[in-house]
Amino acid sequence: MVPPLPGPLAHLAPLLDHYGYLAVGALIFLDDFGIPAPGETILLAAAIYAGAGQLHLAVIMLIAVAAAVAGDNLGYVIGRTGGRAFIRRWGHYILLPPERFRKAEKFFAQHGGKVVVIARFVSGLRQANGIVAGTIGMPWPRFLAFNTLGAILWAGVWTVLGYTAGAYGGDFYDEIARYYPYLLIGLAVLAAGLLARHLLRRRRDH
Questions:
Q1: Labelling 97: which of 1, 65, 104, 119 has CA 20 to 30 A away?
Q2: Contact 180, 188 (CB under 8 A)
Q3: Is residue 163 within 8 Å of residue 51, measured between CB atoms?
Q4: DSSP 53
Q5: Is the CA virtual torsion 182, 184, 190, 196 positive or negative?
Q6: Per-residue pLDDT tens for 53-111?
Q7: What residue spans define the domains of the chain?
Q8: Can you spell out the DSSP letters for 111-143?
Q9: What is the H or E stretch that residue 206 is in?
Q10: What whole-number distance in Å separates Cα of residue 48 and Cα of residue 129?
Q11: Is the dihedral of CA 126, 130, 131, 136 positive or negative?
């Protein structure tokens, strides 16, 4: 029996009950080329179902990786074919004038692979990842390789977490609830430290 999905995952239960793997693939695909969709949350919910024996974990993993890579590559094509024209015409209105775009292009050329992998785990960046890479002209084989690596890591993290939650049910949720405030405090401290370091560097540079 599937444990009740917690909090923001609860509304996804009807989708999984009726459409199963199709819902997982469709929502991840849409999420990954820029359309707002709960791709990450449907993956976690599906993995919980797998942990409870309702879906197969390996199938979820394969579908998640394939849909994520396909969605990002569609975004890459959109960026490659129309992104530069959009930036030239509208860049000033989205805080990306030509000079800033050139800096972003140079940064992506040097660190593009790492950016593509890390962006997979950051909401907002995940959706824009392919479009940005295509717009600045990142070579497609390089993008495909790092994007696939990021998709595998991302899908692996969320499927393992969800599967564990599904297998242990309420006990796992209780443990999450117990330590969640400490996790938030830790993330807040880390963010404050990174911000302080960035401000200190800027002050030294000027």
A1: 119
A2: no
A3: yes
A4: T
A5: negative
A6: 888 999 999 999 999 999 999 889 888 888 778 777 766 665 556 776 677 667 677 77
A7: 7-168, 172-206
A8: HHHHHHHHHTTSTTHHHHHHHHHHHTT--HHHH
A9: none
A10: 27
A11: positive
